[in-house]
């Protein structure tokens, strides 16, 4: 039959084409994964450095978050969530509720905790750091919750 290969490629040709498509999908996935990892590293590096936000600006932001939460009838609000990589022990002391867990804070979490201690705690607010998720059974992100009970 003339032109049979044009109508129906051989099984071997189909297998080769399928393999090439899978390899292309895998390459695209790896490229996206590498970009996501680079973006995540960039964010972590940024969060380890001083934010440059003034206490006045931070107070305005805190007031807006708190007022919105109160307006919705809440008595607490998660104000931040951080990778456990921003903690010197990856959140272990927080998870174990050990005394001195504050010493494990670095970067922006440390900056926000200091702001809380200086401005919000004297006004009767409370703060809670806890492991927020458990990917593959391991501690993941750490959440920072502000409370007024």
Task: Describe what this molecule looks like in 3D.
This protein is α+β, with helices and mostly antiparallel strands and about 150 residues long. The protein has two domains: about 10-50; about 55-145, no CATH class. About 50% of the residues lie in helices and about 15% in strands. It has five helices and three strands. The protein has helices at about 5, 10-50, 55-70, 90-95, 105-120, and strands at about 75-80, 125-130, 140-145. The protein has a three-stranded antiparallel sheet, with helices on one face. It starts with a helix and ends with a strand. The mean pLDDT is about 90.
β-strand amount: 5-15%
The total domain count is 2
State the assembly state of the protein chains: single chain
Q: Please give the share of residues in helix.
A: 40-55%
Largest sheet: 3 strands, antiparallel
Shape: elongated
Global structural class: alpha+beta
Secondary-structure element sequence? Answer: HHHEHHEE
Count of DSSP H/I helices = 5
Features:
149 residues; alpha+beta; 2 domains; three-stranded antiparallel sheet; 52% helix; 13% strand; elongated
